[in-house]
Queue: 2 jobs
Job 1
Amino acid sequence: MAWSSKSHPHRLLLTKQFPLGLEMLALFQPVMLAANKIWNSCVWHSRETYKTEGRWPSETELKAKFRAFAAWKELHSQSAQATVEEYFEAVSSYRKHRNNGHGEMNPPGFKPKNCLRTVTWKRQGFAVENNTLILKLSRTREPIILPVPENWDVITLPDGTRVKGAPVEAKVKAVVRRRRVENLVLHVTFDLGVIPVRTEGLVSAYDYNSALVARTVSNGTQDLFVCRELLALMQYRNKITAEFQAKMSRCREGSRRWKKLLAAKLRALRKLDRRIKQMEHALTKHLAELDAAEGVARAVAGDLKDLRRSSRTGMKNKEASQKINQMPYHRMQAGHKYKSIMRRVHLDARTEKGTSVTCGVCGARNPAWRRKRGLWVCGSCKTTMQADLNGSTSFLKRVLLGDCIGRQLPFALKPPRVWRWDRRLNRFVQVSPRAAA
Ligand SMILES: [Zn+2]
C-alpha cells in the first residue's frame, strides 16, 4: 500500500509487509497484550469520565493517567502513546458519526483479554543496523531484534528506477482467522522522498461518477470507463449489511446467536471488500498508466468537497448523501494520486461545478441540454456526445483556459474509447463504443 504525504504533494510513502512466522509469537505476545491492556484502560477511563462528568477525556489526559501503569512500562513510550492516539482517533470518529446522525454507531469498546493488539513503533522507537531492525521496548527491557532481507528498503518505480526509502514507522500485526493466530506480519512504512514529476506534457481531466469515469486529454483523446460492476458490488454490500442488521436486531445483543451473526457479517463484508478494492485498484492503476504512456504531465480530478452538494441526484436529504457516499471516492482519488506520482504525473483536484451543464465544444451553458440516459445534446452547436465525456471535456477546458463557459474547445476530439471490466481477466478491457449506452 502507498499514499502521498500531506507535507509535499509529490512525497511518496509506501508500506511493505514482511511475514515474521509464528515462532516470533513468544517475543511479541507480551508486548501486544500490554498494548491491549492500555486500550482497555482507555475504554474504561473514558466511560467512567463520560458517566460522571458527561464529557470525553482528552488525549493528553489519558496519556498522563496511564504513564504509571505496569502495561505502559512494557512498551516503548512512543508505542504506548500510539495506542492512546489510536483509541482517541476511534472515539473522535465515533463522535463525528454520531453528530452526523448515525445513531446506530457504538463507541469503541473493550477487547478480549487475550487479544493481540497491533503495536506501532514510531521513528524514535526503532533503529536499523546492518540488516537488522531493532524494535525498542521500555528502557528496562531488551529490544526485539529482527533480521531484515537485503534491499528491504528498495522500491522499484514503474519506469524501472530504484528508490531507497527511509523507514518512518513499523507495526507488528497478528493475522487471526477464526480466532486462531495464523501469523505475525511486520508492516514497515518507507518515505521514498519527493518524486520528480514531469514538467512538460499534456493535461488530462477526470470526471468520476457512480457508474462511469470519463477522461479527456488535451490532445483530444477521450476515454469512458464503465464501472457498473463496481457500483453493483457497493450496492450488494449495503444489502448484505442491511440483511444482517435486520437479523441481529431480532436477537439479544451479545447473545450467542448475535455473536455468530456478527462474525458471519464481518466475514461476508471482508470478502466483498477485497473484490471492491481490487476493482478500484485496477481502475486507478489503469488511469495512471494511460497518463504515463500518453505523455500527460498533469492530471486533474474533481474536488471531492463538491460531492456533498448532491446536485447530480437532485436530492437534498440523507438518502442522497448515502447514495453519493456509497462510492469510495476518497479512497479512489488517493489511489489515483499516488499511482500517478509513481509514474511522474502530478494529480490535483479542482472544482468541477457547472462543467456538466456546459457544452464541451462551444461553451454554451444550459442544464436542459443534459438529457436522460447520459446524453448531451447542445442546442447551440448541435454537438451530441456522452454526457460525462462532455463534463470531463468542459472540465479540461476550465483547467486549460481558466473557464469553460463561452470558450471554444481549442482542439478536435477523437472518437471515445470505451473500457469495461472483464471478469475473467480481472481488468478493464477496451470494448466497442456501443457498450456504454
Ligand atoms: Zn455546443
Job 2
Amino acid sequence: MSSGRTEDITVQVTYDGQQHELRTYSNEYRSLMMLIYDRIYIEGFGECLGMGKCGTCVIEITEKKQNPTAYERNGDANLLRAGRQNKNICLSCQLMIDEQLDGLTVRILI
Ligand code: FES
C-alpha cells in the first residue's frame, strides 16, 4: 500500500559546473526557486524570496518533457527590463512545483 506522498518530480539543476538531482512532490515548495534555495547553497540566489522583483533566481531551461506551470505575476516584465528575452530563460520563482515540472533540466544563470 502506498503512503500517498511520493517524490515523483525530478528536476536536474546545474550550478557552477555541478549537476544536482532534486526530487520533490507537488506543492512541497511554493516554487522551483524555493526548492533550489532549500537544497543547494547559492550565494545571492532568490533574494526577494519569490516576489518576482530581484531577478536573482534566473534559470535557463535546457531540457523539458512538458511546459512548466507558471504563476501569472510580473516576472516577464522584470526579465525584459533585464534584457533577457530568450524564451528558455525565466525566473524560477515563477514556476510552480507540480507534475509539469518533472523531467525539467535547468542551469542557474547567476
Ligand atoms: S526570487 Fe526574486 S525574482 Fe525570483
